[in-house]
Amino acid sequence: MGRGALDKVRGGFTFAEGPVWIASKGVLLFSDIPADTINQLQPPAAVTAIRRPSGAANGLGIDPQGRLIASEGDNRRVSRTLTDGTVVTVADRWQGKRLNSPNDNITRSDGTVYFTDPPYGLPSGQARELDFQGVYRVDPAGTLHLESMDMDRPNGVALSPDEKTLYVDDSAAGLVRRFPVRPDGSLGAPTRFVSATGGDGMAMDDAGNLYVATNAGVQVYQPNGTPWGSIPVPEVPSNCTFGGSDRKTLYITAKTSLYRVTLKVPGLP
To answer: Of 106, 180, 189, 195, which one's alpha carbon is 20 to 30 angstroms from that of 53?
Structure first.
């Protein structure tokens, strides 16, 4: 795995998470969860807060129209930011009960949104209404579907380049699962992909290699699950995503800081 030197872009955050590249603007968005803020990086190093409060947004994604999809822990919902800046709810209840605290999300090219719902970000003093931690799908018509309810702590998500496989990090179990994606967007039965101690957010490159933020840095696995390499990070990484004009810059959020490293294979936002 060829790569350049790791570069610290900026520090001083309370818990950085959820990076996503906005190609239309040439910027990176990322969350600072305890600060209740979504930040914007204008490369190389200009960082500004673009939303506060953010609903304690965690994972951020982008839909085919370039609109921001945010997993908001405090608001217990997944939201979409429209082109005029209006923030609307994508999903906040399953069968009348409030979600736990949506954690991460990714959107397929047809507009299908997949997200995880562990209780990590459940607001203090609020009770859980669901007795499971789900993996959900919102179809292009806006209907919410429960796809999995047997994980202890479903966390990061990633789609393969052909969109036929969804990877989900089960943090408590220390493993990454992969689900076959059917043509209608629904998921088949999962299989174990790799072990990942402390696994959190994930990213995927164009060759189908999976980048997993773990306690041991960003671990990289080939499509067959063979370890391909690792990217040491001074702080425990929480998430990662590809960006830059050539999509060869891997941005890594790690506790109080944002890092980046140049890779040889471009990747997906």
So the answer is: 106
